[in-house]
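Case study 2.
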Amino acid sequence: MTEAAGVLRSQSGYISSSAKKDFGPLDFTGRIGGGMMADLKRRAPFFCSDWTDAFKPENFQKSLSTILYLFIAALAPAITFGSRFQDGTSNQFGVLEMIISTSISGILFSTFAGQPLSILGATGPFLAYTLVVYDLALAMELEFMPFYFWTCMWCSVFTILVAVFDLCALMKHVTMFSEDIFAGLISLIFIIDGVRPIFRNFTDGEMTLVNCFLEALLFILTFTMATALSGMRRTPWMMRPIRNLVANFAVTIALVAASALAAIWASDVSLRMLEVDTTFSPTMTLASGEKRAWVVNPNGIEQEFPAWGIAFAMVPAIGFAVLGYLDQNLTSVIVNRPSNGLQKGPGYHLDLFVRGAITLPACAVLGLPLSVASTVPSITHVISLTTYEVKQLPKGERKVPVKVVEQRATNFLIHLLIGLALFLAPVLKFVPRAVLQGIFFYMGIASLTGNNLADRIFLWFIWEPKNYPQYKYIQKLPTKRVHLYTFVQLICLAILYGLKEIKATSVVFPFFMASLAIVRKGLRYMFTPEELELLDSYPDDDEEEALEAPDLENLGLENDDVKGEKEQKEQNEMDEMTIPREKDVDQDGKPNLEI
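Prediction:
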C-alpha cells in the first residue's frame, strides 16, 4: 500500500493510517464480501449492548421519549404515502400495505443491519418510481402485482451484488457538498408537504372557511408547542429533571394537547381525521369482488404471467436498485457523519445486503410498497437520542453532541408500534390530520440542525458581516466566495426539487442526485483547493481554532454601543469586586458564583 493510499479519509469520518491493510468503512477490500465481513467484525462486539443500552437508567427516559416521538413521526408519512400509493396505482396497494411494509422492513433492518439508527419508510422518489413501474405494466399489458413481484426480486439480486462487490465504497466520492444538498432536499420536502395541505384548504373550496382556519390554528399550535417544549431544557424554568422530561416528550405532548383541543369543536366543525382501515385484508379487489391473497402468485393472479415479462422486469429493477443505493447510502452517510458523535461505527455494505436479501423479498412476496432508509426520520432519530451542549463562538453558538444513545431497541420498538397501530385505529381516529401536518413541518425544521447549507443560507439575512458566527470558513475566506458556494448548492437543490415535483422528469431524479458528485468535482474550476477544503468540510473539524480566534472587539474595533456596554460592565465589577453573589444559573441549573 502506497503512502498516499495509507491515509484515506472516508465520509464516515474514519481514517485508515497504517502499513497493514486496515480497511475503512468505505474502502474497496478487493475480496468478494470483504466489505460485509469488515462491517460484521466492526459491529459484532456491540450487538449485545445494542439491545441493552436503551434500558440503562441514564438512557431510559430519552429512549422512551424517542420511541413515542418517532412512532408518530414515522406513522404519519406511512399513512400519507400509503394514500398516494393507493391513488396512483388504482388501489393495487394502499395505506394498510404501507404501514405493514414500514413495520416489517424496520423490524428486520433494526435486528440485522450494521447501523440500526436509520429509520426505514417510504420516500418521495420511491413513490414516484413505483408509479412509473405501474404505468409501464399497463403499457405492456402485464398484470401489475406479478410484474411488481419480479421487479422487486430482480432489484433484490442487484442490491445483493452491489453489497457483495463493495460498491458502497463509491460513496467515498460523496462529500459534504452532496450530503447537505440531499439532506436539505428531504427537509424541504417535509416542510413543504407539511404546510401545503393547510394552504390547499383555502384554495380548493372543499371545506368551510371556519374549518380551514381551525385546521391552520391546529397546525400552528402543534408546531409552536413542539418547538417551545423541545427547547425547555435550555431554560432556567422549574427543575432540571422536569425540564428534561418535558423536552424529551415535547412532540408527544404537543400531539395529545392539540388533539384534545380539537375534540372540543369536533361536534361543531368537520375536521379531517386520521383514517386507518380496521380490516386486515389487502387493498386490491379482484374482478370477482374478492380481495387478493396476501402472498402474491408470481405466475399471475387473474391471468397467466408470460415468461418474457419476468425478463422485462429487469429494466425497472435497475432503476429501483440505483434509487435504493442512493437513498440508503446517502442517508447512512448523513447519519454516520462525524459531527453526530457516533462511536460504534457504520456498516454500509451490511446495511445494503440486509435490505437486498431480507426486506426486499419480504415486500415482494406480500405485495407491499418498498421501504428504504428515510433521511428526515433517521436524522430526527439521531437528534432525539443525542444530548447536546451549546458551545459559544465569538459570534453566535453551535450545538455540539456530547452523548448519543446508540442501540437497536428504539428502532425495533418504533416499527413494532407502527405495526400495532393497525389495532389502535379506534384511538388514532381522534387525531386530526392538521396535527400530523404540524409534526411533519416540525420534523423538517428540526432536521436542518447541523446542515452547513442551511447555516450558510442564514448568513444571507445577517447584513453586517461583523455579526457573522465565527465559523472557520468565515474567518479565512472572503464573504463573496462563501455566498457563491452557497448559491451553487442552492441551484442544485432547486433543480433536484423541480425534477422530483414534475411527474415527467421524476424518473431521472435519482440519476441527477448521483451526478452531484460530478458537479462537486467541477467546482475546482470555480474555487481554489484551499477554498474547497474549507467550504466542503465538516463543521467541527477545526472548532477549537474557531473558538480561539482573535476577539476583534478587544483590538479597538468595537463600535460605540459595544464600548459603552463594556465600560458599564467593568464599572459594575469594580463596585462588587469583594462581594460574592449568585449571578445566574447555567443551562444545567447550577449556580455561577462570581467574585
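Residues 57-88 form the longest helix (32 residues).
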